[in-house]
Specification:
- The protein is built from 2 helices and no strands.
- It is mainly alpha-helical.
- It is rod-shaped and about 85 Å long.
């Protein structure tokens, strides 16, 4: 969403601003947009990894609880 709004803003600006300074600014804006997109991808991958780890931990907790109950039932 942020990247989309950023791109819309840059397009609006490019339509209203011309010249060498505008070209230089647009190049820098494009580089920044690419960095934001890479960061967003990194965040998505990190979030997925965290969800995976959380599920693994939860499964381990459930298994540990099952084992504890089995031990208690044997006594």
């Amino acid at each position: 969403l942020a990247c989309s709004r950023y791109e819309d803003t840059i397009q609006t600006l490019s339509g209203a601003w011309q010249g060498t300074s505008a070209d230089t600014y647009m190049k820098k804006a494009k580089i920044l947009q690419e960095k934001m997109e890479r960061n967003a991808d990194d965040l998505r991958r990190t979030a997925e990894a965290l969800r995976t780890v959380a599920q693994i931990v939860r499964n381990a907790e459930i298994r540990a609880e099952e084992l504890a109950r089995q031990r208690m039932d044997r006594t």
